[in-house]
Specification:
Layout lengths: L2 E6 L4 E6 L5 E2 L2 E3 L2 E3 L3 E2 L2 E3 L5 E6 L2 E8 L17 H7 L22 H21 L8 H23 L11 E5 L3 H12 L3 E4 L6 H8 L17
Parallel strand pairs: 1-10, 10-11
Antiparallel strand pairs: 1-2, 2-7, 3-6, 4-5, 8-9
Helix pairs in contact: 1-2, 1-3, 2-3, 3-4
InterPro entries: Hydantoinase_A, Oxoprolinase-like
Protein name: Hydantoinase A/oxoprolinase domain-containing protein
GO molecular function, one term: 5-oxoprolinase (ATP-hydrolyzing) activity
Length: 233
Amino acid sequence: MPVIGFDMGGTSTDVSRYAGVFEHVFESTVAGITLQSPQLDINTVAAGGGSRLFFQSGLFVVGPESAGANPGPVCYKKGGPLAVTDANLLLGRLLPEHFPRIFGPTEDQPLDADASRKAFEELATTVNDLEHSRGSDKTLSPEELALGFIKVANETMCRPIRALTEAKGHDTSRHVLSVFGGAGGQHACAIARSLGMRRVFIHRYAGILSAYGLALADTVHDMQVPCAKIYEP
């Protein structure tokens, strides 16, 4: 069964497809710059655990700006902005007791779930005030707000997977979703459900799988030299 690689880190998510052979592209465009070089066909979107959360013009927006590692999300207690990690923490998908005490100004404190909740409560007040001014009587809780942002982030990450499968004539539901990266496991089931995938594989070294793979990979040097010459038969 073909595999979709789903690598979600702090600032971005990389997706790829493997069906017995490595798929390559010979030209790609990154940030408006065209690169003509053979490379693995990997699609990247700016959505990760550190992607910032915004409420703009009545819409939930995730990224592309990132909170980074420093100051990081609100829960890092270094004065950072709301991010996807805060939403997962508020929804109980992250357990502070399973993380080392390396946060806060002195880097000896746990993740601060209360700080994340307070930030979402403040944002919920802004969102609800706007909705009430428009005549709506619905009031969103901080948890509903966090889940809304998670859904936006998930849909953003589903798009490159569809580009590698449906856009090329492959049935997405007939793939296994192989999830890794520091934040991948928090979104795996929702991504699979959205794409109709029934099987999710999470490697035992999922959080460090990219580094693990690099350590096992062969070192190869490729060189290209431009040439403009007429060859006579």
